[in-house]
Amino acid sequence: MADGAKLYVESGMASLTRTIEARGPAESGGAVALPVAREEQHWYAAYTCAQHEKRVAAELGAQEVEHFLPLYSSVRRWKDRRVTLDLPLFPGYVFVRLALRDRLRVVQIPSVVRLVGFGGLPTALPDAEMEILQAGLLQSANAEPHPFLAVGRRVRITGGPFAGLEGVLKRRKSNLRVVVSLELIQRSVAVDVDIADVQAMAR
Length: 203
Fold this sequence. Notes:
By secondary structure, this protein is of the alpha+beta class. The protein is built from four helices and 14 strands.
């Protein structure tokens, strides 16, 4: 990890509860049932304009949309001074948790390009994986961006803040790290682990 690097998370309204009904024509007086998939809340990746992640997170917070923007703090050395910058752990992305019927609240934000998906439809990220990642980053400062990595000696983390996640085992000097990759957005993050907290996965 870069000198002085540490990590923290911006998270919006984790316990937010919202009830929204879609109603038919006024004369009918009835409620129109939406497909279950559109009503269920899941995590999605919002792709943002370059270096606009914090602006998007601030707007999401103002609109009371649950969101997740992990940042890490890195010390950069310039000619005459050292500067600490708080940078997105997943550059170009802010994670949001919502029902698809509410997606316009996100995509209408000027700095949001789209919700990531396939075939024109947003694709949900694994809820369990996102919950572990979010909780782990709140507990641990030992994380930093890593070039996307999906091939290598795969392990499961069995202990520590990131228990339950899977990734590729790497050795960095005297430390062991697991590179956890989010396939949907082609981004990876490296977290420090103890050898006792990893288990090899069958190939």
